[in-house]
Specification:
Low-confidence stretches: none
Distance between the termini: 50 Å
Order of helices and strands: HH
Structural class: mainly alpha
Shape: elongated
Helix content: 40-55%
Length: 74
């Protein structure tokens, strides 16, 4: 049983070390440099209709698409 606990705790320690190493590598290599500038871009423009579905599948006509259900989350 002691061996089992040692393996479990040892694997958590190794996982933690690898996680910290990966985070340090990402910071040193500049992976987070553009996260603030490009992450704030909005994919919708001002002309996007609110509440109207505009995306469809290529082989489905717009008449066959069901209306979205009302979301009654209060």
């Amino acid at each position: 049983m002691t061996l089992m606990y040692g393996l479990i705790w040892g694997s958590w320690v190794i996982f933690g070390i690898v996680t910290i190493w990966a985070l340090a590598w990402a910071i040193r290599s500049g992976q987070f440099q553009q996260s603030l500038s490009e992450g704030n871009e909005v994919i919708f423009d001002d002309e996007e209709p609110v509440g109207e579905m505009t995306d469809t599948f290529p082989d489905v006509s717009p008449d066959e698409i069901p209306e979205p259900e009302e979301d009654d989350r209060d």
